[in-house]
Design goal:
By secondary structure, the protein is mainly alpha-helical. It is built from 4 helices and no strands.
Amino acid sequence: MANDLHKTLVNLKNTSHKANSTITHLNDIVGQLNFKESVADRLFNRTISGEKIKNVIKNLETTSSEIDEISKNLNLIISEINLGQGAISYLVKRLFVCKPT
C-alpha cells in the first residue's frame, strides 16, 4: 500500500512538472507574438479557437495547482503512516516488512 502511494506520488510529481513546463512554454510563445493587428491577435482574442486555447491554458494551470496539493497531501499521509503507531501503520509495516515467502 505504501509502495503504491509512493508510486502515485512520483507520477503526480512528474505530471505536475510536465504541466508546469507546458504552461511556461505556452506563455513564452504567447509572449513572443506581436499581437497588435496580427493573425495571432485575431486567433487569440477574436475567435472561438482563441477562447478555447485560453481555457486550455487556464485548465492546465488549475490542474497543476491541484496536483501539487494532492502531492503534498500524499506526502503527509505516507509520512504519517511511516511514523505512526496506529493500526494502519502497523498493518502496512507488517505487510511490507514481513512478507511471506
